[in-house]
Structure formats: C-alpha cells, structure tokens
Amino acid sequence: MSDLVIVARFASRSEAIVAQSLLRSEGIETLMPEFNVLMADMDPSMMEHGWRLLGISEDATRIEAILRDAQLDEAGGA
Question: Which of 17, 30, 57, 70 has the most CB atoms around its CB within 10 Å?
Fold first, then answer.
C-alpha cells in the first residue's frame, strides 16, 4: 500500500485547484484535505499551513517536476 505525502502547498485555494487540475490532466490523482473548509467560518489559525495537495509517495518526484515546469512556463510567458 502506498503512503500519502504532502506534495505541494499553496497560499490560496484557487492555486491549489489549478495545480490539482493540471496533475489530473497528467493522470495523477491528488487529494486536497482542506477543500471543503467553509471559508465564512474559517479560523485563520487553521490555515497556517496553507492549502495542501496530498499524493502517493511514488508520484512525488513526478508531481514536483510537473508543477515546477508549469511555474517556469508561466514565468516565461509560454
């Protein structure tokens, strides 16, 4: 059985959703434990760790590469 590990952290929910969608398009499923947090009732201390994506430990290196390449593409204007 594969272990789930934190593969990425984001400052906003929308960034995490975009990253999760990108990974899904590459055939990689991830979980976002905070996805269903009700923003209206959220205690800011709950989110001090940011929005996390969890993935299978065996996919961690591939996930990091995909997200890094996406950031480079965005920074380069491609």
Answer: 30
What pLDDT does 66 receive? 96
What is the CATH classification number for the domain harbouring 20?
A: 3.30.70
Instruction: Give the Cα separation of 68 and 40 in Å (integer).
Output: 32
Instruction: Say whether pTM exceeds 0.70.
Output: yes
CB atoms within 10 A of CB 34: 17
Domain count, the chain: 1
Helix ranges (DSSP H) in the chain: 13-25, 60-76
Q: What angle do CA 10, 11, 17 make, to 5 degrees?
A: 50
Length of the chain: 78
Phi then psi for residue 54, to 5 deg, are: -105, 140
Average pLDDT of every residue of the chain? 84
